[in-house]
Automatic annotation (TrEMBL):
This is YdeI/OmpD-associated family protein. The lineage of its organism: Bacteria, Pseudomonadati, Pseudomonadota, Gammaproteobacteria, Pseudomonadales. It holds the Pfam family OmdA. It comes from the Bacteria.
Length: 85
């Protein structure tokens, strides 16, 4: 019998202050909030999983670049977030 995974939930990751500050400084908070909740949570979890500060910074910069560009999520095409030109 197959396991029912329909009610599984991901851990919720709180936004660190340095991520919030970067989003606000680059005026990308609304772009972040426009993303689905799972993407917001995945970005924060992915950044927080890094052990080295340099890796956290690299991941933060990737998230910021993807939000600025639109249409990309974790280096994959995401048409739903594409920015209208």
């Amino acid at each position: 019998m197959a396991k029912d995974v329909s009610k599984l939930e991901r851990d919720r990751h709180p936004m660190p202050s340095f991520v919030k500050a970067a989003l606000e400084e680059q005026s990308l908070m609304q772009d972040y909030l426009n993303r689905p909740a799972y993407q917001q949570n995945d970005y924060i979890g992915w950044i927080n999983l890094a052990k080295r500060d340099a890796t956290k910074e690299k991941r933060l910069n990737q998230m910021l670049a993807e939000l600025k560009q639109g249409g990309v999520y974790m280096n994959m095409p995401h048409p739903a977030s594409a920015k209208k030109q």
